[in-house]
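Notes from hallway chat w/ T.B., transcribed later so I don't forget. T.B. wanted the structure written out for a chain they're using in a teaching module, and asked if we could keep both sequence and structure tokens in one place. Agreed to drop them here.
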Amino acid sequence: MWAYEEEFDAWYADGGGPYLGLLCVLALLGSALAVALVHPCGHRVPRWLPVLAGRPVPRKLVLWPAVAGSALLAVYGLWGTGLALYFLFADRDDLVFDAWAGAGTMAVILAWVAGLVPATWSYHVRTAPERHRTGRPSA
């Protein structure tokens, strides 16, 4: 979809398939992370996981990937937006995907970053030890 068939076949045969597979896996992991940031499963392991059910989720296990993911997606989105804009206005005949597909993808990634950053901050504030929330030691 939104690919030029001749160029896509060569790109796919030259390693594009694993790249697309990696993007799918990263999208699934990012989705699970986003759910953990806003859902109780980010605080306690869900009941349907037999051995770990009900145990607290270590705060850093959710927070650090969210911070790293936000930063990496922001860099990738900004870099990709510049690249997409270049391809929109460049007169090239060797593109694998339509340039508008790249521009649309980068818009979605930047929108994802715009939601992930405040969700990460919210998780950080909500899961901070009481002492860090109030500025006073907990009793």
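Follow-up for T.B.: The chain has a mean pLDDT of 86. Might be a good example for the class.
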